Amino acid sequence: MKNRHSKPPYEKRPKLRSNKWWIVVLFFIIFILINFNVFAINTNNISNLTQSAGNSAINIGNEFSNVIQTQVTNTEKILSTVTGDPNSNAQESIIPSKISISPTYQPTISTNKPPEPQIKDPTIIPTTIPKLDFKQSPKTTSYPYVVDGNRKSISFTTYGGLSDYFSKKGHSYHYDPEKEVVMPLLENEYQDDNVRPLIELIRKSSTNPDEQSKIAISLVQHIPYNWNKYYGTSMDWFYPYETLYNNKGVCADKSLLLAYLLNELGYDTVLFEFSGHMAVGVKCSSNYGFYDTGYAFIETTRPTIITYVPDTYMSGFKVSSNPHIIHLNGGKKVLDVSTEYRDAIKMKQLQAMGEVLDQSHYAEWLRLSNNYDLQYDT
Questions:
Q1: Domains (ranges, CATH) in the chain?
Q2: What is the pLDDT of residues 39-56, one digit of tens each?
Q3: How buried is 346 (Cβ within 10 angstroms: 0-12 exposed, 13-18 middle, 19+ buried)?
């Protein structure tokens, strides 16, 4: 028995053949035509873009060519101006309105070298150290001397300005009096400049160098002794120039002056420094030297024969055989003192005979005294 509510079995229906295939063909043809038109349009656009890009490239090339031509023209004008080409106009504008360049144009550079700049040597303005003016308070002094019994003199002008300048200089020392005091007294530029005229006057007084030195010795020996300084408390030494200006001095002052003059005259000179006294030594033959020093002894406090050494001094001082020797720089010459050495020995012999002499010995004593002006009171 069948169930009324059951589903009946499926039944197939037959298909109907369609006659619409031509519509599909028509759509295909239309699709083809549409795509062909789009391709044609795109091809035209590409052609137009290509042509535009080509035109832009041509324009850029033309502009670049114009720039190159302008630079070449400017170079030509500049070279024409430098080389002095009369066909070029130096006042013409550098950028011309029209450009025309020959294909075979080759710019030429002038081989003429521009003149090298002349470098002048810099002008050096010499700097001079101003000299101090010491020509105040002039004083002319006549300095006497005796050579071979003939008394003469040399007039020389000194200045208080320079003497005051030296008097303000201290002469103290800490370790070495020779280097710190004595040598500065003898080596000074201002002193050299102002004593040099006196050296020249001494040289003009004789053509014999040894006689020139003996003139200097006698001149210093005749300078008065400074008794005020001797009895005073001052122990300071003077510059040689100060002694000349003051025209007086103690043994140290006069010895420094004489040593300075002899050294400037070219003689090998030393100072004999004793305890409480000073004298001068001049290079001589070893036969006439003071205690084998090789230097002849010269007393400066008063006129005395060269090589004569006093036995005693007024103060009781006696010359010792071991003085401190201070050697001056410069002089090399040796002084002939052979005559003075013999006369000094004779004077010693006469003095040993006592205060009363016979006529012949007195005449000898008188000759020596006059020859060296030994009775001159300083």
A1: 23-105 (no CATH), 138-372 (3.10.620)
A2: 444 445 545 544 554 555
A3: middle
Phi/psi of residue 263, nearest 5 degrees: -65, -40
Give the span between the Cα atoms of 123 and 132, in whole angstroms: 27
> Can you tell me the distance from the alpha carbon of 352 to that of 348, in angstroms, rounded to the nearest whole number?
6
Going by C-beta distance under 8 Å and a sequence separation of 6 or more, which residues neighbour residue 276? 315, 317
Q: What is the pLDDT of residues 120-165, one digit of tens each?
A: 555 555 545 456 778 899 999 999 999 999 999 999 999 999 999 9
Angle between helices 160-167 and 189-204 (to 10 degrees): 130
The answer to whether residues 219 and 372 touch, using CB atoms and an 8 Å cutoff, is no
b/e 56-95 (16+ beta carbons within 10 angstroms → b): eeeeeeeeeeeeeeeeebeebbeebeeeeeeebeeeeeee
Task: Name the DSSP class of 333.
Answer: B
Write down how long the chain is: 378
Tokens of 285: 């033959």
d(CA 341, CA 305): 8
Identify any residues that bridge with 274 across adjacent strands, giving them in sequence order: 277
User: Across the strands, what pairs with 158?
Assistant: 139
